[in-house]
Each structure stands twice: as C-alpha cells, then as structure tokens.
From TrEMBL:
Source species taxonomy: Bacteria, Pseudomonadati, Pseudomonadota, Alphaproteobacteria, Hyphomicrobiales
Identification of the protein by name: PLP-dependent aminotransferase family protein
Organism for this UniProt entry: Bradyrhizobium barranii
UniProt-listed PANTHER family: HTH-TYPE TRANSCRIPTIONAL REGULATORY PROTEIN GABR (PTHR46577)
Keyword Nucleus: no
Family indicated by similarity: In the C-terminal section; belongs to the class-I pyridoxal-phosphate-dependent aminotransferase family.
CDD domains documented for this protein: AAT_like, WHTH_GntR
Keyword check for Zinc: no
Matching Pfam families: Aminotran_1_2, GntR
Gene3D superfamilies registered for this protein in UniProt: Type I PLP-dependent aspartate aminotransferase-like (Major domain), Winged helix-like DNA-binding domain superfamily/Winged helix DNA-binding domain
Keywords: Aminotransferase, DNA-binding, Pyridoxal phosphate, Transcription, Transcription regulation, Transferase
Sample GO molecular function, one term: transaminase activity
Cited SMART domains: HTH_GNTR
Amino acid sequence: MPVSEGVISALIELKRTDDEGLTAQLTSQLRDLIATGRLGKGRALPSSRRLASDLGVSRNTVTYAFEQLAAEGYLEASHGRRPMVTVDGGRNEETGAVAPSVRSGKPRLSPWASKLKQTDWPMSYQAPLKPLRPGQGDAREFPNEVWARCLRRSAVRAAKRELGPVNRTRLRQALAHYLAASRGVRATADQILILPSAQAALTLIAAALITPGDDVWVEDPGYPGAAAAFRASGARVMGMKLDEQGMQRMPGLAAPKLIFMTPSHQHPTGRLMSLARRTEFLGMSRPGETWIVEDDYDGEFHYDSRPVPALQGLDAHGRVFYVGTFSKAMTSDIRLGYVVAPPGLVGTLEIAQRHVGLIASSHIQEALAEFIADGHFLAHLRRMRRLYHARRDHLVEGLERHLGEVLSAEVPSGGIQLVARLKRGRADQAAVQRLVEAGVETRALSSLALGRPRDHGLLLGFAAWRENEISAAVRTMASCF
Ligand SMILES: Cc1ncc(COP(=O)(O)O)c(C=O)c1O
C-alpha cells in the first residue's frame, strides 16, 4: 500500500540502543519502504530538515541516509530540492533484492557493446553434450588424477611462497619449448601471453590494432568467433573463398589491416593451407600495416603424416600472431589459451591484458607448467592422437557405408571434426534440426558462412565420441535422411 504524505516518519522506528547506527537504521528502513513499493517511483520524500525534526535526530543523520540511497540508485537528491524516489518498488520474491534499474528506457551503449548482439555466435552450448557435437575433445579421457596432483602441488607451493612472487615465466618457457619442437613456432618465452582462452587473444588483438573501418579478411566459411571479435571492434570483415589450397586472396582488393586464418586445419573444412598460399599471404603482409593472425586451435592432432609447421615459423619480419588454446588438447574447462605476439607488440598487448583483466589463474598456470615439464602433456597428446585417428576413420567408414548416397565425407588429415557435404540439395539447416531432435548434434556448414552460403553440409565431431557412440549416431542419422 502506498504511504501517504506525512506518515513516513510514523513508519520509521529508530532504536537508540541498537548497535547499528542511526544513519544505517534509517537508510535500511527507507530502502525497505521503497523496495516494497510503499514509497513509489516519483514520490517526493520530506526534506531532511523536516524528517530530522519528526524523528528527533540530527539533520546530518538524514542527509547521510539520503546520500547513501541516492548512490545506490533509489533516490534522486539534488541540492535544495526534496529527494525523489527513482525506482519502481517490487522486490524479487526469490532474492529479496530490488531491481536496481533507476530509469527506464534504452541504455545508450558504446559502439563496441552495440555491435556485440549483432555479432554474437552460438559458441557456448547450454544443452548437455550430445554426439556428434563438433569442436570437442574427449574430456573423459583426460588424466584427471595426474592433473589433480599437479594442481595440488601448485596450491601447496603457493601456500609456502607466502609473499614471494609468483613464477610467471615457467609456463611460458615450457610453452616456448613445446611450440618450437612440435609446431615450428619461433618465439622466446617473453613473446607469449597466457590468457583464459584463444577467444581472449582475438579480442585483445582486435582491441590493440583495429580502428573502426579497417578491413579484416577471414576465411569463408570460417570460425564465427573470429569474425565476431573483429566486427565488434568496428572492422569491415570480408570473407575470402576457399579452394583446395585453403584461403584465397580475392583479386583486386587492397591489402587489409589484418588477415585471420586457420592454416593447419581450416575451420571448418579441415583443409591444410599449401606452402604456396602461405608464402603468398606472408608476402603481402607488412609489419605495421598488414598483420596475420594464425589460429592453431587443434594443430596438436595430426594423423596421416608429419604435421606441417606453423606459418608463424616462416615469418622473419614479426608480422604474425600465433594463437593457441588448451581447450581442445586438454579440456575446455581448463580455460587457458595463449598468443605469441610479434616482438613489437608484446608490451602493448600486456598492458591491454591488464586493463581488461584477462589474467589467467597463476595456480593453474603453474600446474600446467609442471604437467608439460613432466611429460604428461605430450603423453596425453600421443594417446589422444591414436584414439582420435581411429575415431575419425570409424566415422568416415560409417558415413560411407550408411549415408554414402546423401553425404560425402571429406577426410581431414588432422583435427577433431570433419565436414560431410550434402550430395543433393542445400537444406543443411533443416537436416541439423531433424538430427538434433533425434539425438545427434551437428552444425550446418551454411551457418558458418559470412555471406551467401556456398557450402552445404554437416560439421561432425569425432574426437569426443567412442566408436560405439559414433556407430549409434551414424545409424540414427541414416534413419533421419
Ligand atoms: C577455430 C577456433 N579458434 C578458437 C576457438 C576458441 O578456443 P577457446 O575455447 O580457447 O576460446 C575455437 C573453439 O571452438 C575454434 O574452433
């Protein structure tokens, strides 16, 4: 029930013996009257002089209470005027909290935030994991006991260290070693920034380099998270077609500010970018003018031949950012990724990293440094490579045997997912819908296109699923088509 003028003071009961000070009591009781709707939006409160006199307290007590409620957004208090209630009362029944929204109306967002909604992409699936969701490694095969020991030792070391400095270089050194030996990346530990994800690396790079209106080239179809990060920063994102050699340069276009690519296993097709194409793109990039971002998200997994080294290793002029993640090689819950930055940009990215607080947990960094140094990381990768290789072949065989008439599987030389193109028609999104209703989760190739989709098919994950699960999913698919 709204309170009528003059009775506000009658509803307030201040206990002078209470431990809680008078200002705190008054603040909390006024807050409550607003929260429950008894003092409605637009309602003017008595002046501080009048309320102080009615309650028998000092004017300062009332003024402080009004100031506190104004700071919390419940009141608008301007000098010389009676304070006004600015929220619609009505408590959230579950939490007891009142909606803090002060004024209605559309918030005026920054240009960056305004673009987020248009560029959002369905990356984090809310629903439980279903076969054959792409982009997943098998978390069930992760050596949790070994990892738990590394985490425990990291926590114990932190407890012993007390006020000593955290060792921030150990993981970066281990990573520099690993990347040089297995991916041909040329970098010192100082060039590596450890972040909570590869996506964080893309966002930092965009924030550091993109001026609204700059051109950014990406693969089409490609990884939506990259297009989103660059678009949100105001870039004009242009999709480059693919052929057998990977991303193609569109003739007649001036060199862009940045080129994003996944040369080891193109996302989503799994194709390997040829050496000729790598050299062509490197040749057109200029330090300070055109940069390349190489996303090597699942380069650890290769099955048919020796892996092709990273493009970053061919760059002698500091034009390439090399981005990686532990989401695929370990588990996505670990939340660790990294970027190897060109020497001239390390300092800027480090400052940007601190500004936006994209600092990865030191405990987990130390545990991972030990996991790598003790050989567990390489052992895990070796085991997963064998397992995923067999699963890839199992899925390809199943698709050929049961769905050969409708789908044509492209066999990637590595990675954790594959593309199966529709042999007839273009209705890949309708197929995805039918399949998900039957319990098989896939991704439509056309949904990964930047412009008008040219490719129609399904993106299927094989790494996260046991062979019997893959067989069951293929049988379900066959019954749906
Ligand atoms: C091509 C590609 N790059 C980057 C990522 C993101 O990795 P992270 O989980 O570390 O952000 C993904 C995730 O699916 C991906 O497919």
